[in-house]
Design a protein that fits this description.
MarR family transcriptional regulator, 6 helices
Length: about 130
């Protein structure tokens, strides 16, 4: 879902750009893109300025589904926050931004280098040892 969301926002991406965003290896993203193409969710095409590269974009069907999904999320969020004061909204936004930043930092630390907790998971999900209970 994260890959589809990223493509929705960026319009198109190379596999390397997607890998960087998803904190995955390029071969892992290539496998992911293969599955998304097979499912009719994304389309591969030649890069507009570099013949050596390809770009990945959402299919029209996937874009339509993502638009519908984001419309529902936006509507639900607006309804859930309509009773908040501007000051309360600011507090909620600041809190969510802090949580998002903390997740991003944690993911980066856990996937960094060969010793990162999830570095092996990127190559093979079965290779990640179970964490503490």
């Amino acid at each position: 879902m994260e890959a589809l969301s990223q493509l929705f926002v960026t319009e198109s991406s190379t596999p390397t750009e997607l890998a960087r965003h998803l904190h995955l290896t390029t071969p892992s993203v290539t496998d992911l893109v293969d599955r998304l193409v097979s499912g009719g969710l994304v389309v591969r095409s030649s890069h507009p300025t570099d013949r050596r590269k390809i770009v990945v974009t959402l299919s029209a069907t996937a874009r339509s589904k993502m638009e519908d999904m984001f419309a529902v999320v936006t509507d639900v969020t607006l309804r859930a926050t309509e009773t908040l004061t501007p000051a309360e909204r600011t507090i909620v936004i600041d809190c969510l931004a802090s949580v998002s930043d903390a997740y991003e930092e944690t993911i980066a630390a856990m996937t960094a280098g060969p010793g990162g907790r999830f570095a092996a998971h990127i190559a093979s999900p079965a290779a990640v040892p179970p964490g503490p209970p």
